[in-house]
């Protein structure tokens, strides 16, 4: 029977989580490597098996570890997209002022990513961006616009060449929230304005002008931010 009380167990479990993360960070456990058995790892770290089980469960939820049926527990490949997958839930569930804060973060990161993309984008990637811009301009259907809007920005962020930033922005780009924005824009007759904003972003990318790209992306997300603030009466 474990001799840890409930408050102690929480502390011990957190310490176990940090120790396993340190083992990975220091290279003692590599991506794709199988962990020692739960019992052996508990002995190695000097904690109970139940605390070790909770630590493994928590790290699995975080995307750091994965359980393979009949095989054991393994370190994942530690891809940024996998580690930040649960981050998207925050954007989907956020409301009010917290959503404004997320848009502020998105404005900062997306403008930076767009500036990076202006310096790095390939002709093929630029052609994809233009394809989605053309498709957005050819319809007034919010669902079609939404799909191409997501693809437009995803292609740009991919062109920036930073997978971690791409994963964070993917999490901030809640499809649910964007759908609400596009429906509201349709009601307010704001499609033309946002089309101009997307065109300005594309123009800056085509000109390979990082600062113009940064400004255009910041203005675009800033408009959404202002729209939300006005809805909240702020």
Description:
The longest helix has 25 residues, at 96-120. The N and C termini lie far apart (55 Å). With 234 residues, the protein is mainly alpha-helical. The chain has 12 helices and 2 strands, in the order αααββααααααααα. The protein is elongated, with a radius of gyration of 22 Å. It has helices at 6-25, 38-45, 49-61, 80-83, 87-93, 96-120, 123-137, 142-160, 163-172, 175-188, 191-206, 210-232; strands at residues 65-68, 72-75. α6 runs antiparallel to α9, α7 (123-137) runs antiparallel to α8 (142-160) and α8 (142-160) runs antiparallel to α9. The protein has a two-stranded antiparallel ribbon.
Attribute tags:
single chain; 234 residues; mainly alpha; two-stranded antiparallel ribbon; 12 helices; 74% helix; 3% strand; elongated
Q: Rg from C-alpha positions?
A: 22 Å
How do the strands of the widest beta sheet line up side by side? Answer: 1-2
Mean pLDDT: 87
Which series of helices and strands comes N to C? HHHEEHHHHHHHHH
How helix-rich are the residues, as a percent range? Answer: over 70%
Q: Biggest sheet, open or closed, and with what strands and sense?
A: 2 strands, antiparallel
Tell me what portion of residues adopts beta-strand conformation. Answer: under 5%
Number of H- or I-type helical stretches: 12
Cα end-to-end separation: 55 Å
Oligomer: single chain
Structural class by SSE content: mainly alpha
């Amino acid at each position: 029977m474990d001799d840890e009380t409930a408050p102690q167990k929480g502390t011990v479990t957190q310490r176990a989580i940090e120790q396993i993360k340190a083992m990975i960070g220091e290279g003692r456990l590599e991506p794709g490597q199988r962990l020692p058995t739960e019992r052996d790892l508990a002995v190695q770290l000097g904690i109970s098996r139940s605390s070790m089980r909770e630590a493994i469960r928590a790290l699995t939820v975080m995307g750091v570890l994965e359980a393979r049926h009949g095989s054991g527990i393994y370190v994942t490949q530690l891809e940024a997209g996998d580690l930040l997958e649960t981050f998207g839930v925050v954007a989907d569930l956020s409301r009010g002022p917290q959503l404004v804060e997320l848009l502020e973060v998105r404005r900062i990161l997306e403008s930076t990513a767009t500036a990076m993309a202006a310096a790095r984008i390939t002709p093929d990637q630029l052609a994809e961006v233009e394809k989605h811009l053309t498709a957005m301009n050819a319809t007034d259907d919010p669902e079609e616009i939404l799909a191409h809007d997501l693809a437009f920005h995803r292609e740009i962020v991919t062109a920036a060449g930073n997978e971690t930033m791409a994963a964070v922005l993917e999490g901030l780009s809640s499809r649910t929230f964007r759908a609400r924005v596009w429906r509201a824009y349709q009601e307010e007759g704001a499609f033309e304005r946002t089309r101009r904003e997307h065109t300005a972003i594309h123009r800056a990318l085509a000109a390979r002008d990082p600062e113009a790209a940064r400004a255009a992306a910041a203005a675009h997300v800033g408009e959404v931010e202002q729209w939300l603030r006005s809805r909240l009466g702020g």
